[in-house]
Amino acid sequence: MDVTTGREPSMFDVAKLAGVSHQTVSRVLNGHTNVKEATRLRVRTAIAELGYRPNRAARALATGQSRTLGVVAPRSTLYGPASLLAAFEETAGAAGFAVSVSRVRTFETAAVQLAVTALLDQRVSAIAAIVPVRGAAEALADLPSGTPLVTIDGPLSTAATTATAAASTVAVDQRQGGRLATRHLLDAGHSTVWHVSGPQDWFDAAGRTEGWAAVLREEGRTVPPPVPGDWTAASGYRAGQLLGRMPEVDAIFVANDAMALGVLHALHELGRRVPEDVSVVGFDDVPESAHYIPPLTTVRQDFEAVATGAVGVLLEQLEGSDRPADQVVTPTLVERSSVARR
Amino acid sequence: MDVTTGREPSMFDVAKLAGVSHQTVSRVLNGHTNVKEATRLRVRTAIAELGYRPNRAARALATGQSRTLGVVAPRSTLYGPASLLAAFEETAGAAGFAVSVSRVRTFETAAVQLAVTALLDQRVSAIAAIVPVRGAAEALADLPSGTPLVTIDGPLSTAATTATAAASTVAVDQRQGGRLATRHLLDAGHSTVWHVSGPQDWFDAAGRTEGWAAVLREEGRTVPPPVPGDWTAASGYRAGQLLGRMPEVDAIFVANDAMALGVLHALHELGRRVPEDVSVVGFDDVPESAHYIPPLTTVRQDFEAVATGAVGVLLEQLEGSDRPADQVVTPTLVERSSVARR
DNA sequence: GGCCACATTGTTAGCGCTCACATTTCGTGG
DNA sequence: CCACGAAATGTGAGCGCTAACAATGTGGCC
Fold first, then answer.
1. CB contact under 8 A, A234 and B60
2. Rounded to an integer, what is the distance from CA A248 to the centroid of its chain?
3. Which CATH number fits domain A66-173+303-330: 3.30.1780.10, 3.40.50.2300, 3.40.50.300, 3.30.565.10?
4. What pLDDT does B198 receive?
5. Mean of the pLDDT values across residues A176-198?
6. Residues A239, A258: contact at Cβ < 8 Å?
7. I want to staple B51 with a disulfide (CB 3.0 to 4.6 A). Which of A294, B1, B160, B229 is the partner?
8. pLDDT tens across A255-314, in order?
9. What is the residue-averaged pLDDT of chain A?
């Protein structure tokens, strides 16, 4: 690597040093066939000697393809979105794509569209949106742009209406998760299950609530009114204070682990033991939940799989495939000690 | 906005529609002076009508400036790094920069350099590295590149040796945090403070441990051997099992909240009450720590400030300032109920 | 009224790459 | 031993933008 270069070496510098044309260098770089082995080697050597790196901007300009994937992600550090983002970035990076992130502080349509615009300005090849909220995700779907778009953790086009067929979705089957948790509680002998829900404009929250209600209905149990939370431990604590004072409550499905922690806290303060007096099931399987008091039975989502799926869908779309492909990842139950048989 | 464009509108399309030259369009776009108000308006209208967006790749090619900031961040979802990353991305975005992320799965030199290379290939204008580990951060410092680099949460050049003056650092004063926690425990009347540490190759961990030891030494207390952890609740649990069995242990400073949760868990299992029997202080102030059992006294870091500082340092460097600027953010103590007076 | 300074606009040449095509080289069979 | 097609390489244009410079227009002042 040279030390005192006035300006970064270009393809022409490499070509000159290797005694070939710039086009041959380009061919070597892009792994084209029809380059003699000896030439290829000479070019490689020159590249190394000069410390040459291809200029992505120039390539993007020439090809009209940036090989960059854009992500819209919430500013929050909620476990789900943060995990999804990390997994997506890693997967995309491993696939040889650059990843450009645009954070949104709120899910208001305007904010989300601004973020998408920023990405579009960069001519990203495709966009993944971690925007798990009703209105916003839908606002995305009809962006007037040919850029492939996948919604992560977004609206499953369950109803085969496929009206907004524009975008693909990869998501965890939240409903199934809710079912899993509720069924587990019922299996343990509880007559019904109470529920602390997440914000209902989140697909995750809505799905979990739906799954919970569906199982109760199928089994002919009473469906108690859900206690709304906002994902935070503090809101879980408030819900716990409420539910803990009701003697008939002996099984609670909480829509995420953070709120479950709050519930545990409130129950503890009220002197109601978990799991002896009340069984609790959470959702997310955050790494800490194994050490809540007591260790929390919860539902685990495979973010890795979601991310892989999302990148896969995007790449496929870039290859030309037009039909949007939805993918669903199934969550699993992680049993610990916050549930006891009745 | 047109619907059926064969190809995206370029500056020339705008120019034609507005009846000016492409250069005038460029001037309007870049806010140059010396454009008649009427002309500016005409151009703006044409831009809107065509739905034109400037092509960043072309601009980057022409100027040699991508106006993109690169970030190297760990794949993990540890609270500190994740918060830092989110804050940095938002701040950078607000400053009008695109943000490109490169995740590393480990902090081995090779992995980190690969990530940086990926960023350099994109010709990012500057790089922020969230690589809070000894070896790796140092490996970065002497990268042979004119690209401005700031290490977030990296090595403070405390000793004014300034040998590796190449890179700037913005970080939380971890030592001060360790002091705060330890002093608080001492003030509560404990004769000494035990310590569950993070991995000592992390600057954060090392700094917290140093601060803890320094206060004990200053006050002439015995300095017990630290129990090493790895940031996870599970490792905290193991440490807690150890310390909880020692009757003389009645005050523990744990290097992060996740491990503190594990300690709390172990202590609970061993029947040692917090804070009645043992006082515990954590570090991070994760949102959940307010609902640990009991609510955890901990040390809060202002990630927002760190991120703002990092972006600031980078921009300054881009403006030409050569001298690397280090910045330190001071943490604060958050009192809750895991500490009791003796 | 003519000239000059300044405000405004236009023209040209790249930035570093890829694409489409032109050209050369080489091995082979008649 | 030469023609011929495939393999290997080279050439020129252009992607959409900015920077430097050139060319207009405009008003004020003597």
1. no
2. 37
3. 3.40.50.2300
4. 97
5. 98
6. no
7. B1
8. 999 999 999 999 999 999 999 999 999 999 999 999 999 999 999 999 999 999 999 999
9. 91
| SS3 state of residue B327 | strand
B30 touches strand D (CB under 7 A): yes
Q: What average pLDDT does the segment B293-305 reach?
A: 97
- Report CB contact under 8 Å: A118, B292: no
Distance of CA B71 to the CA centre of its chain: 10
Class for domain B174-300, per CATH? alpha beta
CA A180/CA A174 separation, integer angstroms: 10
Measured at the CA of A118, the angle between CA B147 and CA A155, to 5 degrees, comes to: 125
pLDDT digits (tens, 9 = 90+) for B176-224: 999 999 999 999 999 999 999 999 999 999 999 999 999 999 999 999 9
| Greatest distance between any 2 Cα atoms in chain A | 86
Q: Which fold has domain B67-173+303-330?
A: Rossmann fold (3.40.50)
> Which tokens is A288 given?
């800490």
A261/A296 Cα distance (integer angstroms): 9
Q: Which of A70, A71, A310, A74 is nearest to A169 (CA)?
A: A310
Which residues are bridge partners to A334 per DSSP?
A: A298
- What is the dihedral angle through the alpha carbons of A78, A83, A84, A85, rounded to the nearest 10 degrees? 90
Q: Which residues of A35-60 are buried (b: 16+ CB within 10 A; e: fewer)?
A: beeebbebbeebbeebebebbbbbbb
> Which of A291, A293, A296, A336 to mutate: most B Cβ within 10 Å?
A291
